[in-house]
Structure formats: structure tokens, C-alpha cells
Specification:
Chain lengths: ~450, ~290
């Protein structure tokens, strides 16, 4: 909240910088020498000089200040409180102090030492804020004055502004990339920890999945089995069923929309189809669990098949319905992108509409269609809610769609809900599963790219 | 027949079509040459929505001749051409009224199969539009959908023959499996011509087939058109007077949706009857 005020003030200052910079260059523009850059560039130049140094100060401050304050607080604790404590205990203590300071519930209530430390923390924070505001203001006005001085007809403000914008854009994309890298690295490291407890071989090729490990050392029996094959098989089974529904229906509806439908019908139907993609997956989930699964069970039993009440078929079919719009909407776009001249060429040779579609349009649109389908596959593999609700939890290794199966995502959810010990093999296996899911999706995307490129060589 | 002409005059008195002397009328055979009439258009009107794009057009296309359609941009040349193989059916807003016969049979007869019509009346477009397939498959496309060949050898023959007749075989014989889109513009256009003649049509319609090509490629296509005339009836839209003069035997001049004048190419270019034709071919407007 307080930081927001500083940022707002800085924005105001930058605005002032823009006005004055522009104003000053306008004054200069009346002189003899022509301006190198337009006045608005001079304005931006000053605004950047105000905003960027101050923002840097702010960020640095926000990163460093808490460290220093904690250090001071710990240092100020009565001697002997911290000595000899393990690092995580110190962390707990600090947490208590922080919670007391901000008035939250702390585990050690009414401990005078902590109370005192909390008061000190609050004081330090108040001082820190004032200092931060002042230094930001100094940086901002400093930049303002400096930039104002520099404004001259020959100043290459446009070039500086362009370069600054360039750097800002690079930094923004770096944030996205670094976040991804960070997530992947954390997955890799946690998985590494898991593989030190459970051999990677057992994980990748084990046929048994029952992640119950002993809670206490004296418990017997449940040592846990972490074979991921049943989960992969379950995921693949459900994805396969989903694609059997989504790929043909999506593709055919895309063809209908793009090639046959009346424009008026299309204007209504296409958004309607896209609404399917907007339904929350949890709604699909209970639709699958409460409507489709019992219905399938009913049909199965009426023809004498035994169907479990949670079946891969129910989850797969509903998931397929959910991803129809992914396939159809993207395919529709790529089919529409096929040039009309190709259709004309085909019709002029006496081809019928369906001949034109199967022999000219689909081949020309194939890279895009493959891309759409593979995107839908990754979506199906990563989908969680429907399978949690409708596919079951039992890690059966089966290809019978009428039985309950479980998927990688479902297991990750069940491994991590509730109170967990954060370094047990059970919890860590979630990271290994996540990593595996990531690798599979990545591989799919790579294959998709490859296929698209291969066909593009052939069809462009 | 007379009533048609009267109607045309009544509808647009200022732009009444003036037919040249040798324009066959009322089924009279043309005395000058003994060629038969292949396509007969009578009182053809085309509307795009409310826009009256083609007005009361009467035109005969002779067999084994090249007929050139000329006129300023937007005058309805392409529109007329597309009537002849019913490509206008593809455009939703387009409505065609009037009689067009191919070998005396009405092509807008509801009982006529448009697929068969287009097999008899092929078309080559302004921009080369090879399919994103191999050169071979481009040419084999038509014969396959029309079931013209029963085995691979037959199709091979048709493909080679068509490429040969389109003057392309020499250049591509060793890369028939390469994509047709990888050819040069002129080669692509000849590929499109090969594709059109592979179904062995009787008429070939060409809509500015050389407008995207350089002079050398254009010259090749013009030569080709002249050779093809022996076996096909050709209708070509062109913006180049020289091209019309070089390749065609008859020329029709369109202006603002009217067929202004039609006659022997030589006569149109040396001795036009209508002042608008004169103005256009001498470059005063258009
Ligand atoms: N699909 C369409 N929808 C609406 N109007 C059209 C359509 N196609 C053509 N027209 C109109 O019909 C008239 C004739 O068009 P056409 O394409 O036949 O002209 P053109 O003589 O071939 O011209 P160009 O030499 O530029 O190719 C034009 O006024 C054009 O705007
Ligand atoms: Mg045209």
C-alpha cells in the first residue's frame, strides 16, 4: 500500500518531467538551430530519466530493506535467544515476530521478547519507508534536473528513447523466460531429491503406484511404490478417448463452419461453439461424474458389461467435448486461411465441394490442423478437474475404458492436498510427476513444430 | 433474337450494343468463315446483389478460335467469362439471367450437372494457383476426380501429354514429384494450363493469364494459346491490346457492363465501328 503511494508519486513526477521536457524543447524550437528530435521525444527523454533511476532505487530498496531490518531485529534480541538455534528455527522465530508486528496470529503469544522485537520491527519499517520515499524522490528529481539540463536542439532524444524502449521490451520478455526457467529448475531439483529416495528406474518403469509411505518410523508395511506406468497409461487412455471425440467432431464442425455454413448461421454458431471453451472445467467435471458416468454405467449394465462407477470412458468423453472448440476453432481459422484461388482452381476443374475439401483444402491446411490437434492433446494431458472428479483414484494398469483409471494430474492433486510433510518421498513424487508431464508436453510441442515445418516445405 | 436486342436498346439506349456486320444473328451461319458456334450467349444479365454488372450481352464464341474479351477495368469481362463455366455459382450474391448454350444445350439448365460442365469448360486464372501438391498430382487432379483413367499408366500418360502440350514437360520432367508451388510464375501458369487441359475440355477460359508474368513467359503462353487453338475453343480476357491482336481471331469490347462491339480482331483494331471502341484501343480512356 505504502509502496503504491511512492509509485504513484513517481508516475506524477515522470508526467511532470514529460511536460517540462516537452515545454523546454518547444521553447528551444523557436531558436535558430532546428531540433534533432520531436518535442514529445524530449518529453519522454526527461520522463525516462525521472522514472527509471527512481524505479531502480525502489526495487533495490524493496529487495534489500527487509533483509537489513531482520538482521537488526535479530541482533537486538536479548543475547542467547538466537544462539545455537538451527536456521529453520530462526526462520520460525522471525515469522512469529513478523506476525505479531502485523497483528496476525502468532504461535507464541504474549512472549515479551517477541512483543518487543515486533515493536522494533514496526518502528524500523516506518523509518525504512520514509527513507525509501526520500531516496526515490532524490533519484527522481535528480534525474529530472539532469535531463532538463541536457535538453538542447542537438540532443538525440529520439535515439535514446528508442534504445530505452528496446531495453524495456527485452527486460519484459526476460521476465517471462526467467520465470519459465525458474519453474523448470525447481521441478528438476525437487525431482532430483525424489530420485535420491526412489530410483529413477523404479519410477519410470514400475508398474505399481501406491504412494502411501509410513508416517512414523515404527509403522510397518507402507513403504510406498512409485511406479508411474499406470498413471501414464491412464493419462494416455483418457487422452486417447478424448481425442477420439474431439478430433473428428472438431475437424468436421470446422469444415462445416468454414465451407458449408451460411454466413448468418456461422455468425451465431461459431461463438456458441467457443462458449464450450469458456465453461469452467469443474462444471464439466461434475457433469462427467454425475451425469455421464452413471449413464454409461447404466448402458453397460443393460448389455451385461460391468462398468465401474468412475470410468475412463466417462472422463475421456467429457474431456473430448471440452476440447472440441480448441480443435474446431483453430482448424476453422486455418481452413479459412486457405486462399480462395485454390478453391476456385479446384471448382473450375469440375471438382465437387467435398472433393475440393478432401483433396485441396485439407492438405493445404494440414500443418495448422495438426498443430490444432496436438495443442488439444497437450491440453487433454494437462487437464485435471474432469479426471479428478470422474476418472477415479485407483491406479489400475488397464486399457479397458470401462474401468476406473487415474492420471498423472489427478495423482499430483491427491499427493499435495491436505497437510503434507515437505520432504517425504510421497510429496516429492509430485514434482517428479510434474516434471514428467512437462517433458511429455514439451515433446509433443516439438513434434508438432516438426510436423508443421515438414508439411510447410511440401505445401507452401 | 430480335426481341432481345430491342430489350437491350430499351434498357440502355445510350449504351446500345452495336454489332459488327459479321456478328451472327438469329442463327444465321457466318458467311466469312465456316467455323461453328460453340457457345452462344443471349441476353445475359448478371447482378451482384443490386449491382447490374452485365447488361443484355449477346455473344457467340466460335469453335477452334481464340476470342479475346477486352475493355476497361470493371466492365464485366471476368464476370462474363465466369458465366461460361458457371463459376459465378460460387459467389453467393451473384445472379445470372439469360441463355447461354454450349453446343446448343443450355448450361443453366437445372438438370445439367455443373461438374460435367466444368469438365468441358476449363479455366485458367489471372494469378497462377497451383495446388499445394506435386507437379504430377496437380495435373492428375482433374483426370482422377473425373475418372478419366483406370490405372496408373493411363494417368502417367495423361500427365505427360498435358505437360507436353502446355510446353512444360521439358523443364519439369525430372521433378514431377516436387511441389508445383516451387515453380516460377510463368511455369506455374503453364502448369495451370496443363492442369486444365488434362481433363480434355472443349473450351478453355483464360482470365488475364499473363498479367502476372514477364514478357518472355508471356510470349511462351501466347505461343501456347495459338497451338492450343487447334484442339480447343479459347476465350481470353486481356488488358493488352497487343496480346488480343496477336492471339485472337475475334475480339469483343466491353464497356460498363455492355458488350459494345464484337468482330474479327483485325477489323476491331483497324476499323472499329463504335467510337468507344476506337477510344479504348487508341488509349483515350480505360
Ligand atoms: N464478387 C463480386 N461481388 C460484387 N460485385 C462484383 C463482384 N465481382 C465483380 N463485381 C463487380 O462487377 C463489375 C464487373 O467486374 P469484373 O470482375 O467482371 O470486371 P473486369 O472487367 O474483369 O475487370 P478487371 O479488368 O479489373 O478484371 C465490377 O463493377 C465489379 O465491382
Ligand atoms: Mg477481371
Amino acid at each position: 500500500m505504502q509502496t503504491m503511494i511512492v509509485i504513484l508519486a513517481l508516475t506524477g513526477l515522470a508526467l511532470i518531467g514529460y511536460m517540462t521536457g516537452r515545454g523546454r524543447s518547444l521553447v528551444l524550437a523557436r531558436g535558430v538551430t532546428p531540433l534533432h528530435s520531436l518535442p514529445s521525444y524530449h518529453g519522454l527523454y526527461v520522463a525516462f530519466w525521472v522514472g527509471i533511476p527512481a524505479l531502480l532505487v525502489l526495487v533495490l530498496w524493496l529487495v534489500i530493506e527487509p533483509r537489513i531490518i531482520e538482521w537488526i531485529v535479530l541482533d537486538g534480541l536479548p543475547s542467547g535467544t538466537v544462539d545455537g538455534l538451527a536456521a529453520d528455527r530462526v526462520g520460525l522465530l522471525l515469522n512469529d515476530i513478523r506476525n505479531t508486528a502485523s497483528g496476525n496470529i502468532a504461535s507464541q503469544k504474549d512472549n515479551p521478547v517477541i512483543e518487543a522485537a515486533a515493536t522494533q520491527l514496526n518502528n524500523l519499517r516506518a523509518i525504512g519507508f520514509v527513507l525509501m520515499a526520500v531516496s526515490c524522490a532524490i533519484a527522481g528529481t535528480g534525474g529530472l534536473v539532469l535531463a532538463q539540463r541536457r535538453i538542447a536542439p542537438g540532443l538525440r532524444a529520439r535515439n535514446s528513447v528508442e534504445r530505452t524502449i528496446h531495453i524495456i521490451l527485452i527486460l519484459s520478455s526476460m521476465i517471462a523466460i526467467l520465470t519459465t526457467v525458474g519453474i523448470v529448475l525447481s521441478l528438476v531439483f525437487e525431482s532430483w531429491r525424489f530420485f535420491t529416495k526412489v530410483p529413477i528406474w523404479d519410477f519410470l518403469f514400475g508398474l505399481d503406484w501406491s504412494p502411501q509411505t509410513a508416517l512414523r518410523a515404527d509403522q510397518v508395511g507402507s513403504s510406498g511404490a512409485f511406479g508411474a506406468v499406470p498413471l501414464i497409461a491412464g493419462t494416455m487412455l483418457i487422452t486417447f478417448i478424448a481425442m477420439m471425440v474431439a478430433a473428428p467432431v472438431g475437424l468436421m464442425s470446422a469444415i462445416y463452419m468454414a465451407e458449408y455454413a451460411d454466413p448468418r448461421f456461422r455468425a451465431v454458431a461459431k461463438p456458441m461453439l467457443e462458449i464450450l471453451a469458456g465453461i469452467p472445467t469443474v462444471v464439466y467435471g461434475f457433469f462427467a461424474a454425475l451425469t455421464v458416468a452413471p449413464a454409461i454405467r447404466g448402458w453397460g449394465e443393460s448389455i451385461g458389461l460391468s462398468v465401474s462407477s468412475e470410468s475412463a470412458l466417462a472422463a475421456g468423453v467429457v474431456m473430448g467435448i471440452m476440447i472440441i472448440p480448441f480443435v474446431s476453432s483453430l482448424s476453422d481459422d486455418v481452413i479459412n486461411a486457405v486462399p480462395q484461388s485454390l478453391r476456385d482452381g479446384s471448382y473450375a476443374l469440375g471438382a465437387t465441394r467435398s472433393e475440393t475439401i478432401t483433396s485441396v483444402i485439407i492438405p493445404a491446411a494440414l500443418p495448422g490442423i495438426v498443430g490444432a490437434v496436438l495443442l488439444a492433446v497437450s491440453r487433454a494431458i494437462g487437464e485435471t478437474m474432469i479426471v479428478v472428479m470422474a476418472a477415479g483414484l485407483a491406479a489400475n494398469l488397464t486399457i479397458n475404458p470401462l474401468e476406473a483409471v487415474t492420471t498423472v494430474t489427478v495423482q499430483i492433486v491427491t499427493l499435495l492436498v491436505g497437510d503434507q510433510e515437505f520432504d517425504s518421498a510421497k510429496t516429492l513424487s509430485a514434482f517428479a510427476l510434474g516434471l514428467m508431464l512437462f517433458v511429455i508436453t514439451l515433446a509433443l510441442n516439438v513434434i508438432a513444430l516438426y510436423v508443421v515445418r515438414k508439411y510447410r516445405e511440401k505445401y507452401d | 433474337m430480335m426481341s432481345n436486342t430491342t430489350q437491350a436498346t430499351a434498357a440502355a439506349p445510350a449504351a446500345a450494343p452495336i454489332h459488327s456486320v459479321d456478328e451472327p444473328r438469329g442463327g444465321d451461319p457466318r458467311p466469312a468463315t465456316a467455323t461453328a458456334v460453340k457457345i452462344k450467349a443471349r441476353d445475359v444479365n448478371v447482378y451482384y446483389g443490386d449491382k447490374h454488372a452485365l447488361k443484355h450481352v449477346d455473344l457467340d464464341i466460335n469453335e477452334n478460335e481464340v476470342t479475346a474479351l477486352i475493355g476497361p477495368s470493371g466492365c464485366g469481362k471476368s464476370t462474363f467469362l465466369r458465366c461460361l463455366n458457371r463459376m459465378n455459382d460460387v459467389i453467393d450474391s451473384c445472379r445470372v439471367v439469360g441463355d447461354i448454350t454450349l453446343d446448343e444445350a443450355d448450361i443453366y439448365d437445372p438438370s445439367l450437372d455443373v461438374v460435367q460442365l466444368r469438365a468441358r469448360v476449363g479455366m485458367v486464372f489471372q494469378k497462377p494457383n497451383p495446388f499445394p501438391k506435386s507437379i504430377y498430382d496437380n495435373v492428375a487432379y482433374g483426370p482422377r476426380i473425373h475418372g478419366l483413367a483406370h490405372n496408373k499408366a493411363d494417368i502417367d500418360d495423361i500427365v505427360r501429354q498435358s505437360l507436353e502440350r502446355a510446353g512444360l514437360l521439358k523443364e519439369v520432367h525430372d521433378r514431377l514429384d516436387q511441389p508445383g508451388t516451387g515453380l516460377s510464375g510463368g511455369q506455374q501458369q503453364r502448369l495451370c494450363i496443363a492442369r486444365a487441359i488434362a481433363v480434355n475440355p472443349e473450351v478453355i477460359l483464360m482470365d488475364e493469364p499473363c498479367s502476372a508474368l514477364d514478357p518472355i513467359a508471356t510470349a511462351r503462353i501466347e505461343e501456347l494459346i495459338d497451338e492450343l487453338r487447334e484442339n480447343f475453343t479459347i476465350v481470353i480476357v486481356t488488358h493488352s491490346m497487343q496480346q488480343a491482336a496477336r492471339v485472337s481471331q475475334r475480339t469483343a469490347f466491353f464497356h460498363l457492363g455492355d458488350l459494345v462491339e464484337v468482330g474479327n480482331t483485325e477489323q476491331i483494331f483497324t476499323n472499329p465501328k463504335d467510337s468507344r471502341t476506337q477510344g479504348y484501343i487508341t488509349g483515350r480512356f480505360g
